[in-house]
Amino acid sequence: MDLTGLKWLQQHQQMVSPEFLQILGSDGREELRKVESYLGNNIYDTIDGCISRTSSFQMEPVKNNEENRVIALGNKRKPEGKRETIEKKKKIKAEDETESSMKENSNMSNTETSSEFLKQDYIHVRARRGEATDRHSLAERARREKISKKMKCLRDIVPGCNKVTGKAGMLDEIINYVQSLQQQVEFLSMKLSFVNPELEFHINELSSMMVDSRSFPLHQQGSLDYSVINSNQTTSLNALKIETSSNWDVHSQCLYNNLRTDSVSSFFSLK
Amino acid sequence: MASADKPINTDVPEKDVFALHFLQSLSNLRRQNTFNSPEKTNDRVKKIKKAAYVSMARAAGGTNRLWSRALLRRAAKENNKIVRFPRRKKRVTCLRRRSNRRDPVEEEEAERLRNLVPGGGGMGTSKLMEETAHYIKCLSMQVKVMQCLVDGLAPK
Q1: ipTM of this predicted complex?
Q2: What's the structural domain count of chain B?
Q3: Which of A115, A167, A177, B97 counts the highest number of beta carbons within 10 A?
Q4: Which residues contact A172 (CB under 8 A, 6 or more apart)?
Q5: In Å, how far from its chain's centre is CA B156?
């Protein structure tokens, strides 16, 4: 073992593996130490440099040794000083970290694989600081957020719930509103049955409705709906002619001659 | 950060669709012979009410909404008719009835809501909210249609 070999080693900066040292034998080590003293620790520095240069990633030991489970880290996360956020996927365990410095330093290669998990169709929930991160409570929280989102939708629909806060009062308002709507339907159907006992619905009502509301699609040419209404009307016409009461015949004649709303109202006032 | 599901859809067709269906059902009603007797007002009222609900269910949801399906099924059972619905792509939700997804605090009022909204018994709380929203919109539309009709027919 001559010095030139070692010098060549140093110049070419090859990694000195422990096996290599073993090959050298104990004698070689002594010689290496001599060389080391001769070169002034340069070899070991270079060796260390080689090792550091050839490694693909850096790793620093995790000081927070509470749990040593797999950390699932998000790629887009910014290190925040005060408020810690952990991104959790439902199929990967989460680790409770309170130090943010560790996250900055660890660029583990398994973030690549974890990012693939992020793209799958899971519900992503952010756990805030101080809250539990076990799976059940997070699922509960996700469910509650869903329900509150839907309650917000309902708030826009149900009138007069600006003053009420909270879920209970809101639900009360909703129940009252639904009940009132159903009562209105019943009341209006009663009114309908009294106003028009024979249920004669003809073009008059349709035209009156057109006046009241927006444009009726029935009056477009060639629409299927219009033909359906037409056929219904003819059947009602035939039914009317079969009617025994003469009053109705007379009035129905006026009805079909005029298509105005005022004629309808006059017809009904004659009853 | 909770990722949102697809945005909640509570679209309701225009008033005209409701009116059309309602008038059709009413004209179907008057073809029945039992309708011309003016004495039995209660029966008439009930029939009109049922016609209103059924036409609303058909106009608004068709078979896409849980509440409309439940309504139509209930109405058909009263008439002793069998109603078949096309199979939906999602699996049936009544399998999830026994799971512990319900919060006992809000459950009393949700129970009352379930009794009001048709088909409410088989839904989870979050689904119930969606259906309630759509049901409320359709109900208000139907009320407007009937109000227009009554106003058009009422003596001035």
Answers
A1: 0.82
A2: 1
A3: A177
A4: A164, B109
A5: 32
Among A121, A199, A233, the residue to mutate for chain B (most B Cβ within 10 A): A199
CA-CA-CA-CA torsion sign (B107, B108, B111, B113): negative
The answer to whether residue B92 is domain-embedded is no
Does residue B33 lie within any of the structural domains?
yes
pTM: 0.54
Scanning B57-96 for CB atoms below 8 A from A yields none
Note the pLDDT tens digit of each residue in A113-159.
444 444 556 666 666 676 677 888 888 888 888 888 888 888 888 88
A269 to chain B: closest CA residue? B155
Domain ranges, residue B45: 15-86+102-153
B45 located within any domain: yes
- Is B1 among the domain residues? no
Cβ atoms of B65 and B123 closer than 8 Å: no
Rg (CA), chain A: 43
